[in-house]
């Protein structure tokens, strides 16, 4: 099977500015752990403050880009994955390009001359993370870039598409173009719930894309928010996963599968009206460095097996393996070679 360009991701490329901070810093900016939000004016000084006050690391991030990089790492097949998103024409953008090339991902960035490359403050306290994204250039992605022949060629080539829900705030039109292409050509289209605020404030565009989703990923907090927004009156993650999997589909070729992670609790997979649970690899607390990128890494591991048409059990096992590797390191980084077999 030819793997070149088999998996295409689209999303918001962000440079993670990651640091271990203290509770006071979280309080000062009114942010809570295990959350992901978009920066408001009151958050803008925090990026500068982090670099002055704490020891920061810069890591190429953004949810979709993380997942694609991890899938690429797990596959170890150069050029198996491609990625599109918008960066600025600046040093952070250059850093991002260098990072992605090293990772072996075929990136086609749209470069915007008016806005700086997007950044994401990753505030780590006790191993748990809080994300505050300042999209900047990432917010400037246009579907015109996607329609260019050299970029649309990546869409034509791919058999699997993955887009984090965060991209719904930027270019729903691009998502729709790819989703409709996937449905017409019997390809596999996948998205992530990504954050409670997406389910709450971007409900309309999320619902428009949902019929096209063959796989829906998320974590327990996002699943419960999705349930609340849709008036389902249940907090039971298994029930919610089932309901999402049974949401009407635009194309009948693939049945929808919902995959919900729950931190250290079992992964919930709903398909065909049934729920399966898979245990994760438990990690002693002292080995946990930070949870940033754990969910993205899970998806990346999962996708690395899915594109090889492995059974769902194997996809989940690879997802758990990748997440386990990532949480023992700072940010969404990994060793040179995976030891997954």
What can you see in these coordinates?
It catalyses: adenosine + ATP = AMP + ADP + H(+). One of its GO terms (biological process) is AMP salvage. The protein is built from 13 helices and 14 strands. With 341 residues, it is α/β, with parallel strands linked by helices. The strands form 2 sheets. A 9-stranded mixed beta sheet has the order 6-5-1-9-10-11-12-13-14, sandwiched between helices. α3 crosses α12 and α12 runs antiparallel to α13 (312-326). The protein starts with 6 loop residues before the first strand and ends in a 15-residue tail after the last helix. The model has no long low-confidence stretch (mean pLDDT 94).
């Amino acid at each position: 099977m030819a793997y070149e360009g088999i998996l295409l991701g689209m999303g918001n490329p962000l440079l993670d500015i990651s640091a271990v901070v203290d509770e006071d810093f979280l309080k000062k900016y009114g942010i809570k752990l295990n959350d992901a939000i978009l920066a408001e004016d009151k958050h803008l000084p925090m990026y500068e403050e982090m670099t002055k006050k704490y020891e920061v690391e810069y890591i190429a991030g953004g949810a979709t880009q993380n997942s694609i990089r991890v899938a690429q790492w797990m596959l170890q097949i150069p050029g198996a994955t491609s990625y599109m998103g918008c960066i600025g024409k600046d040093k952070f953008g250059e850093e991002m390009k260098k990072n992605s090339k090293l990772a072996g991902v075929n990136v086609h960035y749209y470069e915007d001359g008016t806005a700086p490359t997007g950044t994401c403050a990753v505030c780590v306290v006790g191993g748990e993370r809080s994300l505050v994204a300042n999209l900047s250039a990432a917010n400037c992605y246009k579907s015109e870039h996607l329609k260019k022949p050299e970029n649309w060629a990546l869409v034509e080539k791919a058999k699997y598409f993955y887009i984090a829900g965060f991209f719904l705030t930027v270019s729903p039109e691009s998502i729709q173009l790819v989703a409709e292409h996937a449905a017409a050509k019997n390809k596999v289209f996948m998205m992530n719930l990504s954050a409670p605020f997406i389910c709450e404030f971007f409900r309309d565009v999320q619902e428009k894309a949902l019929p096209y989703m063959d796989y829906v990923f998320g974590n327990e907090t996002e699943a419960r928010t999705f349930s609340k927004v849709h008036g389902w009156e249940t907090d039971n993650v298994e029930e919610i996963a089932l309901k999402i999997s049974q949401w009407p589909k635009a194309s009948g070729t693939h049945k929808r599968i919902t995959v919900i992670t729950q931190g250290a609790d079992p992964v919930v997979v709903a398909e065909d009206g049934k729920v399966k649970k898979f245990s994760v690899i438990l990690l002693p607390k002292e080995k946990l460095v930070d949870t940033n990128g754990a969910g993205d890494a899970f998806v990346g591991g999962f996708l690395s097996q899915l594109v090889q048409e492995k059974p769902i059990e194997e996809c989940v096992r690879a997802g758990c393996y990748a997440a386990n590797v990532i949480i023992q390191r700072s940010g969404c980084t990994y060793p040179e070679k995976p030891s997954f077999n």
